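Morning!

As promised:
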Amino acid sequence: GAVVSQHPSRVICKSGTSVKIECRSLDFQATTMFWYRQFPKQSLMLMATSNEGSKATYEQGVEKDKFLINHASLTLSTLTVTSAHPEDSSFYICSAKRGAWPFPGELFFGEGSRLTVL
Amino acid sequence: SQQGEEDPQALSIQEGENATMNCSYKTSINNLQWYRQNSGRGLVHLILIRSNEREKHSGRLRVTLDTSKKSSSLLITASRAADTASYFCATDRGGANNLFFGTGTRLTVIP
């Protein structure tokens, strides 16, 4: 199957700093990528839809100024957590969609990035 | 918000037994998918079933879909310790350009 790479896999930062997480589709072009947040032992909550060359679409309750998303190319989307606070500590997962919806199959997910804010 | 609920929330079985997980959803759908997640890892797609299908098989996996009841089940036969993971259903809410996940079932297969 297709490969989506997410980096870094783990990051620890101090409160007040910003952290950037990258999501790359390695062997296909992804016009649309998605960012999810997952708390321990809970499900994935969709944060935003990242569209190449345009502004991201945020889900209700997600602060767009807090979670900056950039999808500058067909293979890369970035999520920047600005002025991070301990409550932002979580597991962030990206996924990439290949082809028309519904792709015969699925979205392709990254391995996730665990953010710990001290 | 979550699309639906899986039950049970946690399931522990002996290796070799069958594991059945259920998923209920609230809106109309075009398709429903099941994913697996090992602890602290990303998601792996298992199987997709379209709204006009009632049952689908893939290896040791069997998925059923009842659109009248807005529910689906995932059956893993002859379970193995390596099947230990969380399992999520996800739907497209009838054509939304993304997936919405259920609450998940944590499966533990005891060797």
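The interface with chain A takes residues 2, 30-31, 33, 35, 40-45, 48, 88, 92, 97-104, 106 of chain B (CB under 8 Å).

Hope this helps with the figure draft.
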